[in-house]
Amino acid sequence: MLTNSLLRLPAEWEAQSAVLLAWPHADTDWAERLAEVETTYTALIAAIARFQIAIVCVADDAVQARATDLLGAAAADLRRIRFVQIAYDDTWLRDSGPITLSDGKHFQLTDFRFTGWGGKFEASLDDQLVQGLIQREVFVPTAHRRIDWALEGGGIESDGAGTILTTWKCLSQRHPQQSRADMEQILLDGLEAQRVLWLDNGYLEGDDTDAHIDTLARFAPDNAIVYQDCDDRDDPHYAELNAMAEELAALRTRDGEPYRLHALPWPQPILDQGRRLAASYANYLIVNGAVLIPAYGDAADDEAARIIGLAHPGRRIVQVPCRPLIWQNGSLHCVTMQLPKGVVA
């Protein structure tokens, strides 16, 4: 652990070394629809490799060969794709990957405990992922701080300037015996932050993360927030997401000004054997020079891309088909973790 430093959690729109992912295989929860979800992973990794390095975890030689074949057939830039063989339970690396703090020259791989979203799923291998990547020399020599407190990367947003945005629903589920003040202090200390902003409202039906912030509201440059809106009064999400929008409107920057808000359109319900899936446009990924945006085959896809583009000016907008991903209740931000510039070996 570094001390007396200027470590901070960079904003996602800052310069990156790479994006970390894990390829699905037959021993993950994707087994039932493996070929279908591989189409999304192929498109996603090919899109990342247009702009920077993608580091792809694979379980063994066979999984690596399969991924290489599919990516090659899709004309992905294989020179920008690195494979790392390592064991993992599943592929949600937003939540099991490192939360990397940086001061521009030094780094800290902050490694919170991963419990499979409050014990819902087996997570013992995923909880060892950061240590395993360090042993495989994925990163430059850097500090590694293990924090024995459950937190997932999808549960927090950083503006890069000391403000963390999170949801009460998620963290109170993980730590029901702790007060908000106690949890806030752990976040401030663990993330080298100056303040925490909480949302008490907001959820998506079908989401088993207990309202991760990255499905609901995202920081954007110049004191902006992009959020998932719902304008359908007959939809069960309407009251909750409108209450969340009111909370966002009441938040203030460190200078006491309101945030500029960008409301995302509401997709039509997507059902799978009667189960509603958690389709959120807020679950996008920022990479060097571009924003990768989930597309669900919905009429609102293009409008969502336009709005996110307005919030992140000067970046290419790339839509990635994500309907197969939401079968397992997450989208493209959930399966990726960006790594700040300089941290990758």
UniProtKB/TrEMBL annotation:
What is the name of the protein in this document?
Answer: Agmatine/peptidylarginine deiminase
This protein's species is Tahibacter aquaticus
Entry GO MF terms: agmatine deiminase activity; protein-arginine deiminase activity
The alphabetical list of record keywords is: Hydrolase
| Lineage per the UniProt record | Bacteria, Pseudomonadati, Pseudomonadota, Gammaproteobacteria, Lysobacterales
Name the Gene3D superfamilies for this protein. Answer: L-arginine/glycine Amidinotransferase, Chain A
Q: Which Pfam families match?
A: PAD_porph (PF04371)
UniProt cross-references to InterPro entries, sorted A to Z: Peptidyl-Arg-deiminase_porph
Decide whether keyword Cell inner membrane is in the record: no
